[in-house]
């Protein structure tokens, strides 16, 4: 990493601490910055970043502007209106601008009896201090790399989302990460803590939108804590401009016996790294993790997943699929831990890829680490081309080769898209995929 | 309608067809029989345009056009249909949607407007009745989880929908029990007319009992060694292929 950058971050960090460092979040930041200085930014020499390629270090060779340098409300309602996802009108819309939660631009439709959304600092000073103190930054115990530590060093302007006990939200929660890259390359570091209380239900959507033509880099961390009998659906849609990069960490802890269903869809961007951590901290947890990356151009998408079975009788199913065209590159690295206590674990993992071009690359790395002796675990991965036999079959019925190809690819993707239970979002993703695969 | 002249074809350098000749006219039903490995399915594949097979010599003219120059999809649009010996399962592609796409691509090729949903459904209903196929199969992905009989019935249903000028049935009778065979054969019979030709590739007499072909050709070692009427098939059923092989070696000796 350039020393210029170290100095720049140091300066910004000191400024932030001087103004806002007098509470427990300040202490967390301090620890974060210590780790950041120790670990530095990752390079391809770090095993966990090896296949992300030089893209990740190149990201830091640019002159980013942190939000502190940006004018307030640089993104307007009309900018947002142009970029809303389908279903947004019925959603609680949380708007981040350059990594900072913007209350003024957000619309909360759920009642306060159901859902509390507060700026993180404000929530930490009030009634939610205990929860936040207990749960904020547990992800640092798992992710030790410099990029995560950098986000932690700059926790400020984040959001706290609290779904109250027994509340089944009618409105899904849409979290938009806007980056204003009209004048400068922008670095945003949003941070969110989501707490889903007992027997509550939440549908959560995260997406990234860059306005402008300069580069954006969003280094986001969302921590989700799920209590007993709660149901959480989490959807991430990455369809930003081609010079938008993301390191997006979703750290989900199932602290009671509960149900999780997550789908990550990556369609467009520059360098995208998704860390999906799932910690099964109570017996009988159930989780389904799905992912689809449909890539072209030079887009790089890296999905790192971790399923950590800490207690007995948990079930997890993980299924990621990828279609890579042009010079796109992809990484799937899936880790399943089964701790000594986690007897009767059922953990499945599968990653399937189709390469459409000779220049496209996928690195896939399933990993199982099992320390219990009575478990059912499986993993597998495939890399291939389209099924020639199926292609021929369709063509013998008069369907053109190109059209047949797009039908087969759409079917391949459909396995994952159909897992989006939020209908307007599913239809939207389906449309994007049909457009992408369309025959011209 | 179809004129095959001196077709030689190979796969991965291995010569399979060694000079096939025959003519087929509209309205005719031709059966091609022969022992395993004689080249029956290769002939079907070459006709349908499977790219792994290389035609090294000869010509195929279909309705006056050089068929070897055409892509598989164009052959289909011109009116060729191959009922597969092993219909492919394609998860995630609905049968109905697939047939609609196929039908409309064919219409487009002939300069016709795509069918609207109502007319398509009407035609579908009609043809479903014709080949006795259940609606529930058509809402599923193509052949996914279908039994052997259901797959073959689906092939005949597609044939009914696409209304080809020439249909090739590649061992459509294989893997069928007696009832399924009867349903499939009845479907094919209903699709016979004076404008449509059918090539039936089979090992056995039983499908031919239903279809009553006009001509029977026997393929051995990449060549048609004997042609005749439907009585030839009966003779084969009775005596096996050996009698033909004996005839050939006898002829060679003379």
Architecture overview:
The complex is a heterodimer of chains A (440) and B (254). With 440 residues, chain A is of the alpha/beta class. Helix content of chain A is 24%, strand content 40%. Chain A is built from ten helices and 21 strands. In chain A, the strands form two sheets. In chain A, strands 1, 4, 5, 7, 8, 10, 12, 14, 16, 18 and 20 form an eleven-stranded mixed beta sheet that branches. Chain A is globular and about 70 Å long. Chain B is an alpha/beta fold and 254 residues long. Chain B contains ten helices and twelve strands. Chain B has a six-stranded mixed beta sheet with strand order 6-9-10-3-11-12, with helices on both faces. In chain B, strands 2-1-4-5 form a four-stranded antiparallel beta sheet. The radius of gyration of chain B is 18 Å and the shape is globular. Chains A and B meet through helix 8 and helix 9 of A and helix 2, strand 7, helix 3 and strand 8 of B.
Report the structural category of chain A.
alpha/beta
Low-confidence stretches of chain A: none
Strand content of chain A: 35-45%
**pLDDT average of chain B, as an integer?**
91
Terminal Cα span of chain A:
44 Å
Count the strands of chain B? 12
* Shape label of chain A: globular
- The succession of helices and strands of chain B, N to C, reads EEEHEEHEEHHHEHEHEHEEHH
Largest sheet of chain A: 11 strands, mixed
Query: What order do the strands of the largest sheet of chain B run in, or round the barrel if closed?
Result: 6-9-10-3-11-12
**DSSP strand count of chain A:** 21
Q: Separation of termini of chain B? A: 36 Å
Radius of gyration of chain A: 21 Å
- How many helix segments of chain B? 10
Offer a quick outline of the entry:
The complex is a heterodimer of chains A (440) and B (254). Helices cover 24% and strands 40% of the residues of chain A.
Write the layout of secondary structure elements.
The complex is a heterodimer of chains A (about 450) and B (about 250).
Chain A (H helix, E strand, L loop, with lengths): L2 H18 L3 H16 L15 H5 L4 E2 L11 H7 L8 E6 L2 E8 L7 E5 H6 L3 H7 L10 H8 L5 E5 L9 E9 L3 E4 L2 E6 L4 E12 L3 E11 L4 E9 L4 E11 L4 E10 L2 E10 L5 E10 L4 E10 L5 E10 L4 E10 L7 E10 L5 E10 L5 E9 L3 H8 L5 H17 L5 H15 L3
Parallel strand pairs in A: 1-7, 2-6, 5-8, 6-9, 7-10, 8-10, 9-11, 10-12, 11-13, 12-14, 13-15, 14-16, 15-17, 16-18, 17-19, 18-20, 19-21
Antiparallel strand pairs in A: 2-3, 4-5
Chain B lengths: L1 E10 L2 E11 L4 E5 L6 H9 L4 E10 L2 E2 L5 H7 L1 E4 L6 E5 H15 L7 H15 L3 H4 L2 E2 L5 H15 L3 E5 L7 H13 L6 E5 L3 H7 L3 E6 L2 E6 L1 H10 L2 H12 L1
Parallel strand pairs in B: 3-10, 3-11, 6-9, 9-10
Antiparallel strand pairs in B: 1-2, 1-4, 4-5, 7-8, 11-12
Helix pairs in contact in B: 2-3, 4-6, 6-7
